Amino acid sequence: MSTNTVERTFPVRERTAWVIVVIVWAGYLVLYLLGTSGAAHTVAKGLLMPALLLWVLAATAPAAPRLLVAGLVLATVGDVGLRVEFLVGMAGFLVMQVLYVIGFVRLGAWPRVRSGWPVALGYLVFAIVANALLGPRLGELQIPVLVYSIALCTMAIFAAGVSGRVGLGGLLFLVSDMLIGVGEADLDFAGRGLIVLVTYLAAQYLIATGWVRVVRPDVTLPL
């Protein structure tokens, strides 16, 4: 699909969409560093994934990957939900992980997952160790976190089967959510929240752009 076709079928150009992503993400980072809370913070956080979704739609119109689109919508539910009720946010991300896995399988991840089984084994060991260490400190969240971690680990495994870019995104997502678990286990440390934010944004960026590059190899990415 040519760039001209994309521009005719979607009202926002790819370059314009990237500018919006940068503005929205940089704006939220500033609010975070300033310690802003309340409604302004929640609204700004709720715009993070819609901004990325806007670029996805601009880059892949008129046939955007439906599972990626739905995943980013559910990530928005997760982002806002975590600020309102932790389990609501986790549920949003849980369904997102499932959709990503299905999407990665459809992109042809399974053969690479099967041949690269040591990677899958490494992720599984990591998940088992993390749950064993953090689980007893999570209280009533222990079982929900265990279920979510299984979905998260599966997503990271299949992400590695799509491409190096998507695989790195899956790994960073695993790191980000593990650090959220560390916080919920009352093992906080300086800078944890910022690391969670940066790794999360990088993860979604790499997954979304890697996905788009698979379905549209001629796409131009800034990074």
What does it look like?
The chain is mainly alpha-helical. The protein is built from eleven helices and no strands.
User: How many domains make up the coordinates?
Assistant: 1
The number of distinct β-strands equals: 0
Radius of gyration: 17 Å
Q: What is the general shape?
A: globular
What percentage of residues falls in helices of 4 or more residues? Answer: over 70%
Helix/strand/pairing category: mainly alpha
Distance between the termini: 21 Å
- Compute the number of helices: 11
Largest sheet: none
Overall pLDDT metric: 93
Quote the beta fraction: under 5%
Order of helices and strands: HHHHHHHHHHH
Residue stretches low in confidence (pLDDT < 50, at least 5 long) are 1-8
List the helices and strands and how they pair.
Blueprint: H1 3-9, H2 14-34, H3 39-46, H4 48-60, H5 66-84, H6 86-106, H7 110-115, H8 117-134, H9 142-160, H10 164-184, H11 192-215
Helix pairs in contact: 2-4, 3-5, 4-5, 4-11, 5-6, 6-9, 8-9, 9-10, 10-11
